[in-house]
Amino acid sequence: MLNFTKKAADTFKLKWAQLEERSGDHWKVDLFRIGRYPVLLIVHEKTLFTLVRRKADIKTVEAIAKEIEHHCPWYPFPVEISLGRNSDRRLSGSITEMRKFTWNMTSLDELPQLENQINHGLFSYLAESKYDYGKPIDALSRYRQRN
Question: Which fold has domain 2-146?
């Protein structure tokens, strides 16, 4: 269910090298900073739908799962939380693009607006054809119709 970047795995005291490499209908967790404050990007790998949360508000892996369960009722929540890693370079590139949305942020109070910008932004990862782009919010609509 949850895949971690190396930095996020270290933060939650997980041994990244021992996590199973996988891709699919999972969430990728990444950690970055806005100023001095650590922030989590929790990204659905199929749609790029993203939750942005202050690390200070989420202390455990279980808390990440609870955030997903609470804010994403459309996701088929598993009985057990599974942990892994995903090194897909295209997905990592899109997460790097998401970080660029934070360059002009001056306050953590802007996190809801950041989440909205990301979910309405254009990403080549979601392209249905070459030289195309897609929005996470549109990919989420297609995902919900299929499931």
Answer: Nucleotidyltransferase; domain 5 (3.30.420)
